[in-house]
Amino acid sequence: MQEQFTRTALLLGEEGIDILNSSKVAIFGIGGVGGYTAEALARSGVGHFLLVDNDKVALSNLNRQIIATLDTVGRYKTQVMKERILSINPRAMVETRECFFLPENADDFDFSSYNYVVDAVDTVTAKLELIVRAKQAGVPVISSMGAGNKMDPTRFEVADIYQTSVCPLARVMRRELKARGIKDVKVVYSKEEAMKPKETPALEDTASCRRSIPGSIAFVPSVAGLIAAGEVVRDLTKKV
Hints:
This protein has 240 residues and is an alpha/beta fold. 37% of the residues lie in helices and 14% in strands. It contains seven helices and seven strands, in the order αβαβαββαββαβαα. A seven-stranded mixed sheet has the order 3-2-1-4-5-7-6, with helices on both faces. Strand 4, helix 4 and strand 5 form a beta-alpha-beta unit.
């Protein structure tokens, strides 16, 4: 066992560390939530990763995303996250896909090869397809609900999607998952009512200005990501 995981082994045992080291976790979306999930899983000893995102680090990410620094602006988020993982655990195997997951390219992903799927993407269409594919493959999945326009990280909970309340995204997901015959999905969500943004950021893209852009802050999506990582670790090692 590598020395950097000895403190974790005090909680999980060497068998738990071995399970994590041999597990492959696919993380879709390497932003405010997914970036912290990936970081925590790397520090917990997960040995195999698939990182999926087509975004590059932007200046607007600096306020909340663990991969975002002035040095990484303009680089693919997946590549920056891969370097962080390997700087923590050089023995980790990290595969990256610079694309957005969509129903149109879902067949390009072998869900049966993953031990766990983390859904940290933004769009309902992608979230639904991720969950359906993971369920079809018999792979556990955790899905992150809305973290935008919120300020209280203590309001996050882990629950089955059909036991959620307050969150508008969860409401949409409940309806759409029920229509697809999905009976249960673990989610991390917040019961905090969303705030109304005080102002619209100045953006160069006028089309973006017409969209509803959620506010965000460092200590909210990060907590959602860490909670998701904790669920992954506990689920993978629960038989230890």
